[in-house]
Amino acid sequence: MFKPVSSRVNFPELEQRILKVWLEKRIYERSVEQRKGGPLYVLYDGPPTANASPGIHHVLARVFKDLFPRYKAMKGYYVPRRAGWDTHGLPVELSVENELGLKSKREIESYGIAEFNKRCKKSVLRYVKEWEDLTDRIGFWIDMKQPYVTYENGYIETCWWIIKNLWDKGLVYQGYKVTPHCPRCGTSLSSHEVALGYDEADDPSIYIKFELKHDSLERTGLHVICLDSRKSQLTCWRGLPRHGHCQETPLWLWHRMLSTRLWRGQTITLSWLLLLWIGWYLKAIERCSGSKVQTSQVFRKG
Question: Which of 137, 208, 281, 282 is deepest in the core (most CB within 10 A)?
Fold first, then answer.
């Protein structure tokens, strides 16, 4: 009645034998079809990008995604699952840029945007076979014969249709969001894209000191309190990020400033936005040097 079981199991051979049975007997398709008529539960796979081979972390993500439709199927739901391929995103473009030896957005435009997009479309489906094999081998049951592809017009038009419905219902509003920006690529970055090349680095800065004249302070309505006879100076900071552009401090608020006598007998005036940081820093200096640091303030008259 039962076939003999060998004590020497060849697991790769066993795996292939089971996969062959699933394929020949259409086990996945039949498991879906036999539940037609039940309550509907649909899974659209959060699609991976197939421009690179899958890794072990993709196995974990796909196993987790497989749990929910299997559970719903066991509860009697009709659970069609549809695979997909994500064909958008900066990693795709960077991969093609490296292949073509392009270094900037301007070089892409010179190469030709239409031709560049064509190369990207080929790139994103380069490793589909490897992804299909992995999906089958880990037992992630999903329809990979009719995947949705995000660069196809049907998918893009569906996205616009969804936005149109949200607009008609008054659910779309204009807002503002601070995002990381890549000056080389000329685009905002997602957190995932930032992580692709993120590293911590020290950026150089320039600190420029401007001498303050007491008569000009009076004309601007500022009054200096407790300043000694040494010259007072306003310090302006300009950062020099690695991409070479200068970006100066966005706000200098005059109505409340801190004037601090620091090392080498100089008096430097700093924006009140730095008060908290300076307060902590002066305490650190005091602890390290064992001497008290004298401070004074500048206030607006009236």
Answer: 282
- Collapsing DSSP to helix, strand or coil, 220 comes out as coil
**Global pTM value:** 0.62
> Which letter does DSSP use for residue 264 in this model?
G
Per residue of the chain (302 residues), what is the pLDDT tens digit? 788 887 888 888 989 999 999 999 999 999 999 999 999 999 999 888 888 889 888 999 999 999 999 999 999 999 999 999 998 878 888 889 999 999 888 899 999 999 999 999 888 888 999 999 999 999 999 999 999 999 999 999 999 999 999 999 999 999 988 888 888 888 888 887 887 766 777 777 666 666 666 565 555 544 443 344 345 555 565 554 444 443 443 333 332 333 444 444 554 444 544 545 555 544 544 444 444 444 433 333 33
Query: What torsion do the CA atoms of 111, 112, 118, 122 make, to the nearest 10 degrees?
Result: 10
CATH topology of domain 11-87+125-172: Rossmann fold (3.40.50)
Taking the CB of residue 281, how many other CB atoms lie within 10 A of it? 14
